[in-house]
Amino acid sequence: MNIEVANRLYQYRKKMGISQEELAEKIGVSRQAVSKWERAEASPDTDNLIELAHVYGVTLDELLQGQAEAEAQDTDAQSAAEDAADASAPSGEAPRGIHFDSDDESVHVGWDGIHVHDKHGTKVDVDRKGIFVTENGEQKVYTDADGRVHKSADVIAQEHKDHRSAWEMIPYPIITVIAYLLFGYFNVCGGWGYGWIIFLTIPLYYTIIEAIRKRDAAKFAYPVLVTAAFLVMGFVWNLWHPGWVIFLTVPVYYGIVSAIRKSRK
What we know:
Blueprint lengths: L2 H14 L3 H8 L3 H8 L7 H11 L3 H6 L1 H21 L10 E5 L2 E6 L2 E5 L4 E6 L2 E6 L2 E6 L5 E3 L1 H10 L9 H15 L4 H5 L5 H14 L7 H16 L2 H4 L5 H16 L1
Antiparallel strand pairs: 1-2, 2-3, 3-4, 4-5, 5-6, 6-7
Helix pairs in contact: 2-3
């Protein structure tokens, strides 16, 4: 990671008056990870950058580039878009190209580029300087001189929200309700008496998806799995004792997970 970004992460945290442990707990990482970010020994991934920006109350551009530089880039991008729009209609001359104007909407296609402005406040300008997308005066997406694409924090957050796997879109809680009704009606898997245990699989289902997506076994609700297993052992096989021993695997599980996470740092 760039040392300037690392220093910026440190300054934002100090400004909020929170410790590395407190920040790590807020965003769901280890304190060692936060420490390495602030020493420029490692870089946070996109998910963690979004969380950091949210915690510090800044945009991703401000987090990565600094407030002054981010504002300067936004101003430059906005000025370039306005210059391109102004160039489409020189004073005293009818602009060349294809034009459409209706109320608050306009489309211009000419040698100076393509400029589309709609009545909802969205503007798209494409010219030799790059591509600029603006909504209600706020720059959302633009490209710089090197062709790199820059997005505002809310755009990145929305993309992250929309990026859900097919497994996450399955209405699993509804499936468990249907299964429980079938268990009770047909008296299978313990019927009404024991079938309710299936509801414990709901957090298991979603946390295992989260653990796989983030490649972090700590996200998996292992204590819930242990509880479900203990109830099944007790109700079905009457192994309340020594079945309780299974709870001793909880600290073992997280100890192993912690060791693996440290080895990856």
